[in-house]
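Risk register update: the risk of archive-format incompatibility is retired. Evidence:
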Amino acid sequence: MPMKSSKAVVKLFEAKREEGQIAEHMREVLRGLGENPSREGLLSTPMRAEKALKFLTSGYEADIEKIVNGAIFNEKCDEMVVVKDIEFFSLCEHHLLPFYGKAHVAYIPKNKIIGLSKIPRLVDVFARRLQVQERMTQQIAECIKEVLDPQGVAVITEARHFCMMMRGVEKQHSSTTSSAMIGQFRQRKDTRDEFLSHVRHNGLMNW
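Archived output:
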């Protein structure tokens, strides 16, 4: 068996020194896949995988109050506010494979509005977790309801799931739509129809 070069030994030592608990387990995963985690191309992979997973699940550590950061303003406004085509990426909790798409969010103020950039940030809070699309959609709607106490909230998400594209049925062009309607959006058909007309103006999704 050939001896490792001193350079490779140093790289391996540095990689292990920076690893956390997830990275340690990732080294075992690589071995279980039949790989050699000590080879040059994989030396830093466990650490990189840990950093990536922590970023992709950073929503667990998110503080809603800090994200909103006081960006709620008193305004005499009771007309629908719509933010659409919010891109998101998440991880399917069943296979740890990505799903990605766009969220369309609307609310009807009750004399309070929120800074528009905060809505995509709130979407990210729930997308950056191990998720199912249906629950994520509902959580986004309930969060906006709690933060703003509006007359109604509506959320539609459309996504493609790698667990259907890369494995299983291997369907490349199917997408999944999920919706959550609260308050006036659930109670009034004309309100739902107005929201859908805004979302459909340019098509729900342009894949």
